[in-house]
Amino acid sequence: MKQKIAHITLVVDNYDDAIRFYTEKLHFTLVEDTPLGEGKRWVLIAPPGSEGSCLLLAQAVGEEQQSRIGNQTGGRVFLFLYTDDFERDFRNLLDKGVKIVRQPLEQPYGIVAVFEDLYGNMWDLIQPAGR
């Protein structure tokens, strides 16, 4: 048996605002943006050079989904973005005005910093040790 996680849903307030943030500030690629009718869209984004999972941007519908925006993991780091050049990508976050929650630290597994996306979801930016 062979399986993989294809997409991870990220609940957002607005498709276009989310696309702009991820493509302009994090340099993600817009993989797909297909209208599904009634205002719904199938929106996939991925980090540059990624061959793995994509983020599926899902615009919140209703109070319950709205309440999850920015806090899908109860205040914990939600997503982990690996990089081959920490300094380049950390500098980009600073230059684009992305909120840094924790400054870079050397850890046994690599160098890591925590940042927030436009909704307050926390991300780790990580360059694994030895790379």
UniProtKB/TrEMBL annotation:
Domain VOC, chain residue ranges per copy: 4-128
Name listed for the protein in its UniProt record: Catechol 2,3-dioxygenase
Molecular function via GO: dioxygenase activity
Pfam annotation, one family: Glyoxalase
Keywords: Dioxygenase, Oxidoreductase
